[in-house]
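Below is one protein, fold included:
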Amino acid sequence: MGLFNRKQEVYEPESFVPNTQERGSILPPSRTDIVVNTTSALSLIPVSRSLAVLETAIMQIPVEVYRMDEQVDTPLWLQSPDIENNVSQAEFIGTTLIHMAIHGNAFWYVTRGTRGIANVKVLHPEQVAVNQDVNGKTYYHVNGNVVPNENIVHIKLWHKAQLNALIGEGPLQRHKYIVRAALDLQDYADNWFRRAAVPTGTLTTTEFLSEDVAKANKTAFIESQQQRSVAVLSSGLSYESLSLNPEEAQFLENQKFIARQICTMFGVPSSFLGLSMEGAGMTYTNGNEDRTKLYDDGLQQYIVRIEQALSDLLPRGQKAKFNLTQFLRPNQLIRFQSYAIALDKKFMTPNEVRELEGMLPMSGGDEVVQQPTPAPIGNETPEEEQAEPAPTRSKKKETK
């Protein structure tokens, strides 16, 4: 290769060129691997609070026994189902709901004696394994031991889409993606300031700076600010501080949105979690309506299944039924307006009204009250005085 064909190599110092497109940008924190299970789901406040609302509500509703439309005595095993462990009816029903809501399945172990059912115990779903033999018969293992099918009551909340699914599923299994999104967002927000690359500010310039010069400017600026002195910027440098308000840093709107989705998933009105829509005041009337909505959207699906399971354990012709009278009781104003109509239309007596309000009967209260006719208002005159006078005949003039 000739002398004139050689390319002359010229050494140039390497320059430090900042990325102007991402100048001042904030890098998000790295995401951690999150496992969606019962423990991680219950760590979410909307999940645990929704479960608490459902459990507390159903524990307030007593279960009664009816033959046709007539109430009969509740058997001892239903008054205290798990007598061996001193578990009340309310606790028994509440635990059953929790297992259905979390695992999608609830299991009861029934012990029978010479006089019928002696004890009904709630089993944890993780203690029970459901299997099927070659003939398609379902059988149960409790703590690894096979138990007779007649000793197990299996309640499924929702049936799976798969054909002949042996176990059911609940909100956490069917809507796992919502739980995962809530866990991701919670972890992301918690680690924003701890692991995110969030600078306090940026020094920018339109000139190209070498790496040494850029670091020297950064060091000088930091040292001057540690002493809270005046900052002197050269080479066309300008400083811009970066800050995030708490609402943006914690993604509050996103968290509220996911919390409302979790409420919908469990059928719990968002007002029970303090997530009422902005501008909508909470009054006693719509608070009572929320209890009705809680029953329609959330509790009813559990109550129907538990009623059926209990009825199957009762003698033929009897059925278990939750008494919703007190739970769905209207507020005082609506009740009194209804009583006024009932008394006015004469299909209730005062003592019947007092009994519904938990008051003692009064003397003469078993008779239908004749409501007095309201007195005329203003200067109105009685009907007799308002009658028009009879027309008088005019005398005809006599003609000759």
